[in-house]
Amino acid sequence: MKRPVRIAIAAVLAALGTAFLLYGIFSGQALTVLRKATLICLECIGIG
To answer: 26 with 20: CB under 8 angstroms?
Structure first.
């Protein structure tokens, strides 16, 4: 695959990833993910 095509594909995937990340943040899912991650970590070390 030629270099410009690879760069274009990488740019599109990066933009898509950023768009999904922003969608998750603005729809209020960041707090939910943080809460679940905290619970998993606390269970893993035996506190929760």
So the answer is: no
Residues 14, 37: Cα–Cα separation, whole Å: 24
Q: How far apart are CA 36 and CA 48, in angstroms?
A: 12
Go through the chain and tell me how many residues it has.
48
pTM: 0.63
The CA distance from 33 to 19, in Å, is 17
**Residues of the chain where predicted confidence (pLDDT) is lower than 70:** 48
What is d(CA 10, CA 23) in angstroms, rounded to the nearest whole number? Answer: 20
